[in-house]
Amino acid sequence: MNEPYLFESPLLEGMILRRKSQFTMDVMLEGNSVACHCPTTGRIGDVDVKGLSCLLSFHDDPKRKLRYTVEAVSCDPPDNPDKHWIGINQTLSNRLVEHLLVTRQLPDMIADYSSVRREVTLGSSRLDFLVGSTYLEVKTPLTTLHVPYGAHVKTRPAAPFSSTDRMVKHVGELASSLSSHERAILLTVHQYQVRQPKAHQRSTNYDSVHAAFEAAIAKGLEAWTVDFRFTPQGVWLAGYEDCTTSLL
Predict the structure, then answer these.
(1) Which of 68, 115, 204, 225 has the maximum number of C-beta atoms within 10 A of its C-beta?
(2) pTM to 2 decimals?
(3) pLDDT 10s per residue in the chain (248 long)?
């Protein structure tokens, strides 16, 4: 069964004119420039987003300053009628994973459970899910985009990043939970189909992060990935796999 996560209304296609700030983008939509919310504050891979096609959600809420949110971008040519979309709203990932768990679409990863709880406390961390007796933490990295780029895509030099403390903390808490729980999983979500795997950009803390992962996996932590097919109508599961050994 591959039951999609459907949007309330189909997303609208536009073209990014510029990224105005961490939180905003100007987008050409039906011949007009509109200011849109950008749901990710970091960079989107190594691409210059100017000129990229995008998908927008509309929110008819008078309390919102910006009515549109950029939900996805595409590195395919703008005139391609069958674009591959890359979801950039990282908060959507938890809703997608919850949908997969509730509809039991990840049986090879986790099958025997009777409850799915969101936002559970473990030690000093708040983790994303407790599925039966298995803790599950979701990550949605956008520092590397595993897709081919069209000729129109301009790239920018990779910028070093150091914000890894939260991940290291959660990995440690997950591994520590294995003394009282059967399983703990770190799930990496790609809101797109991986079509061209690339070397991951390394943080300035790579050695310490790698050591933390090695120690956690030695205790029994599992690492999985899940890919999605993102469309204007909704999001479909594209595939998932155990990648624990590849992190060693």
Answers:
(1) 68
(2) 0.92
(3) 689 999 999 999 999 999 999 999 999 999 999 999 999 998 999 999 999 999 999 998 888 999 999 999 999 999 999 999 999 999 999 999 999 999 999 999 999 999 999 999 888 788 899 999 999 999 999 999 999 999 999 999 876 665 667 777 878 888 888 877 778 999 999 999 999 999 876 666 667 777 888 888 888 899 999 999 999 999 999 999 999 988 65
